[in-house]
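With this grant's support, we have settled on a layout for protein records. A representative record follows, to show the layout.
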Amino acid sequence: MHDDELLTVPDVMERLKLGRSTVYDLIRSRRLPSITIGRCRRIPARAVREYITHELEAAA
C-alpha cells in the first residue's frame, strides 16, 4: 500500500472488516479523513493506517 494511494469506501470496508455505515460514521465524525472527487468519496491509505495506529494506542 502506497502512502499516496486513494481507497474507495468498499476498499476501507474490506481492510478494516467494517460495514459501510460504520466507515461513513468514521468519515462523518472526522476520525477517518476523506476527500470527495466529483461524486466519489476517497480515503487516503495513510489515513487508514493512522486510524489503526491511533486505535491500537488508545486500546493499550
About this structure: The longest helix spans residues 45-59. The mean pLDDT is 94. Helices lie at 9-16, 20-28, 45-59.
